[in-house]
Structures are given as C-alpha cells and as structure tokens.
Amino acid sequence: MGALTNAETGEPRTGEPRTPAPRTRGGRTTPFRGLPKQARSRVTRRHLLEAAVSCLAEHGWAGSTVAVVAERAGVSRGAAQHHFPTRESLFTAAVEYVSEERSTALRELFQAAPAPRPAVLEALVDLYTGALFRAALQLWVAASNEEQLRPQVTELEARVGRETHRIAVELLGADESVPGVRETVQGFLDMARGLGLANVLTDDTARRERVVAQWSKILDAALG
Predict the structure, then answer these.
(1) 43: how many CB neighbours lie within 10 A of its CB?
(2) Is the per-residue pLDDT at 188 higher than 60?
C-alpha cells in the first residue's frame, strides 16, 4: 500500500494520545509532519484500536462497523482494512491492545514500592469497570451469537484472564504453593468481574467499596 493519506493519520476523539496530535485546518486533518511512514502506520493502527474500543462500549457490536470506527479514528475505511482485514480481527485486537495497556499501567502503578492490599484490590477491581470492560462485554455477547467471532474471543478471554491472574498474584504477594491460595485469588477476580457487570447499568461505587473491604479481610486471612 502507498503512503498514508492525510485522513489516515487523523487523531482519535477519545483517550490521551501518546504521540503528537495532527493539526486540523477547517475540520480537515493535516499530516503528522516529520513522521516516517512506519511511524505513521503505527499511529494509525493505535488510533483504530482505541476508536474500536470506544465504539464497542458506546454502540455495541451491532452499531460498531469498520466504517464507523474508521470515521471516529479519522482514517479512511481502506486504511482500516489495510491494518485489519476483517471486522472480527479489528475488535478482538482492540480489546487485547487496551487490556495490555491497562495491565502495564497497573504493574507500573505499584512498581516503586509494595502497596497496601486494599489499594491493590481497588486497582484490580478498576480493571472491570469503564469503557474497556463494557467493550469486552459487548464482544462476549456478540461471540455467543457470531460463530466466526467465538474462537477469537474465547482465546482472547483466556489469555487476558491468565495475565490478570498473574498480575494479581504478583501484586498481592500470594504464594500459590499454599493450598487454596490460587482459588482465593481467582475467586476475588471472578467477584470483581461481577461487580463490573453490576456497574454497567448503575453506579455501584458504594456497594463495591464495602465488598472490596470485606474481600481485603478474607485475603488477609488467606494470604497472611
């Protein structure tokens, strides 16, 4: 494919960009001046992934087409299909990308020094609230009805679940060689997912805080 057009390097409308935003002139996007082709391609891909998560969270699977995502990302539909040939590959890649970003941010949050267990639990619960979780939920629902989507989502969910469990064990200082510890940590993560589901329809903050406080006591007893 040739060099990216102006529209293909547009700034997404959601999220905090980590690269310089393109200038706009009269509502039209101008190029990322000085960026080589490969860098522009990476920026375009990231914009598409972030836009896909936002669209999926806001409009669901039925309302999130490649064309809608491309428009939100400020790129052409052709550019979107160059990076992601199918709708399924776009949305599974989008949820995986943002999941990895949030996992990295979670690790870095507690990298400097050990954190109090309640703070770690709150941060882990936060993984199951917000736009990413809503997007993942829409993807799960779609996969239950879309045969071609199901294998990709099943594999993605298993991979994200394993990584989240590893992070939880690391941050909580859990020793999984002790009987019952692995199941206790996984039980907390399953509960956190349930809290995320409750939060989709209503603001469940107050109840969530009480539940997390109780789980902190349970984990203190189980993990020492």
Answers:
(1) 25
(2) yes
At 193-215, the pLDDT tens digits run: 998 888 888 887 888 889 889 99
pLDDT digits (tens, 9 = 90+) for 149-181: 899 899 989 998 999 999 999 999 999 999 999
Beta carbons within 8 Å of 199's beta carbon, 6+ residues apart: 128, 129, 205, 208
